[in-house]
Design goal:
Layout: E1 5-8, H1 13-34, H2 40-59, E2 65-67, E3 70-72, E4 78-79, E5 86-89, H3 96-108
Parallel strand pairs: 1-5
Antiparallel strand pairs: 2-3, 4-5
Helix pairs in contact: 1-2, 1-3, 2-3
């Protein structure tokens, strides 16, 4: 099993997180279109509700997950490919702040 070293990297985590979220928004948007959800406003509502909820949970804004009487909060972390075993993490930004604008930008590009 790998041994991980956690490194606070405020300088890149925000940009990587925004790109990660944008990639997933695009993935779900494509799935919705493939599954017949052609109405842009309906897709927008689904994307905004899902990703805002998920980002709030990852930001620690939402309560977290209860397990055996304890509250655990998931966090978004990234593996540094240049240094095996290094996990990059930052609490210096809130991913949910970007959710609506990321979705609006992506949908605007569809026209």
């Amino acid at each position: 099993m790998d041994v991980f070293r956690v490194v606070l990297r405020d300088d890149i985590c925000e940009d990587v997180a925004i790109r990660w979220q944008s990639q997933l928004v695009d993935t779900l948007n494509c799935i919705l279109k493939t599954r017949g959800v052609s109405d842009r406003e309906l897709r927008r509502g689904i994307l905004e509700e899902f990703f805002f909820s998920m980002a709030s949970l990852l930001d620690g804004v939402a309560g977290g997950i209860e397990f055996e009487g304890m509250q655990y909060r998931p966090r978004l972390v990234f593996d540094d490919p240049s240094t095996p075993g290094t996990i990059l993490v930052s609490d210096a930004f809130d991913l949910h702040d970007y959710t609506h604008s990321d979705i609006a930008s992506m949908l605007a590009e569809e026209t």
